[in-house]
Write a structure and sequence with these properties.
11 strands; seven-stranded mixed β-sheet; four-stranded antiparallel β-sheet; single chain; 0% helix; 115 residues; mainly beta
Length: 115
């Protein structure tokens, strides 16, 4: 079955960096666009970044452009989100998603940006 397992979250000070990983299984990873979303308390789940199957095209929410970088390693069935210059407003649970007809989500990883 499809599984997405996120890791790499934690507590970081403003201006710091984190790298999130999402390990995928149960489908042909190299054939699908992968996305990162985030959900802050009391808010909707929003798209953060997306990367096409070969990694050739990426897109970002305006709020993270220039600070976050999405990438993937199709040999490892893993998608990454490098987050630099983190701000308190980046605090959220971060999820990876794949659309295979239905949407599949990981369990999420908490990112907290605070001094």
């Amino acid at each position: 079955q499809v599984q997405l397992v996120e890791s790499g979250g934690g507590l970081v000070q403003p201006g710091g960096s984190l790298r999130l990983s999402c390990a995928a299984s149960g489908f042909t990873f190299s054939s699908y666009t992968m996305s990162w979303y985030r959900q802050a308390p009391g808010k909707e789940r929003d798209l953060v970044a997306r990367i096409t199957s070969t990694g050739g095209v990426t897109s970002y929410a305006d709020s993270v452009k220039g600070r976050f970088t999405i990438s993937r390693d199709n040999a490892k069935n893993t998608v990454y989100l490098q987050m630099n210059s983190l701000k308190p407003e980046d605090t959220a649970v971060y999820y990876c998603r794949v659309a295979l007809g239905s949407n599949y989500w990981g369990q999420g990883t908490q990112v907290t940006v605070s001094s």
